[in-house]
Amino acid sequence: MEEFETVTLRDPSSALTATYVPIAGMVATSLSDDGVELLGQRRGLQAYVSNHKTMGIPILYPWANRLSSMGYGVDGAVVTLTPGTGGVRTDQHGVPIHGTLGGYRDWTVTTLLESQLTAELDFAARPALLATFPFPHLLTLDITLTDRTLTVTTTVTATTGARVPMCFGFHPYLQLPGVPRAQWQIETPAMRYQPVNAWGIPTGRVEQRPAATDVLGDRFIDDGFDEVPEGSVFALSGGGRRIEVHFDQGYTAAQVYAPGDDDVVCFEPMAAATDALRRGGYREVQPGESAVAQFRIKVS
To answer: Superkingdom of the source (predicted)?
Structure first.
């Protein structure tokens, strides 16, 4: 079994730690509160690297969730995707899912301190990445762990004359060890629900959903939303512990996921709704400029 070098950040003010693996796609494999693991381990790191089976907090880049077809067009450029090539992977229906950086090795760590980790990836220098997303740019992740809060700031800098679509996201698998799943409480803000077809692709129909607080019970949830207000807070609580996901800026869409076969809940920050890379409705980084998106996970 392959060994992966890890980086563990420590909160100066508490017993909270966060572990990242830069050479495995900058995935977060642990968020531990005095030894209590708050991230779902799923099938583990090895399965994430070898088979793209997500766990912890993976980055979904350059698109989050699914695309409705094996190709897309942006500014006159038509891109054809091939499963198994350039990091493209598909779900059970054969549609592309979660981008191309699952387990990607070539991140460069630029800052490493006790409570801060910064890493970057230069798409312009990697033809294999440009083949599936032909928009040269610098992708930077800045991660800090302070005041019982994990903050993930993503910066996309357009490095040539091409505009860069912002359709990425993250997939935090949250858990409450020692508390039965049926007793978990989830809180979601007011936002717009996007029903999907059998392939998980939005139908185009929408409906407004008010803010809600519910006990999870035995429900299976896999719902997509847009029109998520900046600053929105999602929360998972139970057993005296509360985990909040703050959509600080740049994340206007979300997926709420609670599978029936694992005790995890996901509040996924997304820079654009599912299939936006094909349908439009995303923000673009203009040539020579940068755009920032940030979310935080606060443990109390």
So the answer is: Bacteria
Indicate the residue type of 1. M
CA distance 161 to 85: 26
- Select from 42, 25, 287, 51 the least CA-distant residue to 168: 25
184 CB-side CA count, 13 A: 24
Residue 47 makes CB contacts below 8 A (sequence gap 6+) with: 53, 55
Which tens digits make up the pLDDT trace of 44-65?
999 999 988 999 999 999 999 9
Task: Report the pLDDT value the prediction gives residue 76, as an integer from 0 to 100.
Answer: 82
Per-residue confidence (pLDDT) for residue 218, from 0 to 100? 96
- SS3 state at 22: helix
Q: Kindly report which listed range (1-10, 91-100, 116-125, 168-177) carries the lowest average pLDDT score.
A: 1-10
* 152 close to 269: Cβ distance less than 8 angstroms: no
Give kind and range of the element (H or E) at residue 57: none
pLDDT at 3: 83
What values do phi and psi take at 259, rounded to 5?
-70, 160
Quote the CA–CA distance of 118 and 152 in Å, as a whole number: 10
Residue 1 has pLDDT above 70, yes or no: no
Q: What token pair was written down for 112? A: 């490493």
Q: What is the number of other CB atoms lying within 10 angstroms of the CB of residue 196?
A: 18
**Whole-number Cα distances in Å, 128 to 87, 104, 239:** 9, 11, 46
- pTM for the model stands at 0.97
Cβ atoms of 55 and 43 within 8 Å: the answer is yes
* CATH 3.30.365.10 holds for 7-299: no
Burial class (CB in 10 A: 0-12, 13-18, 19+), 148: middle
Question: 264: closest CA among 173, 189, 186?
Answer: 173
Tens digits of residue pLDDT in 88-121:
999 999 999 999 999 999 999 999 999 999 999 9
Angle at 247 between CA 245 and CA 250, to 5 degrees: 150
Question: What are the residue ranges spanned by the domains of the chain?
Answer: 7-299
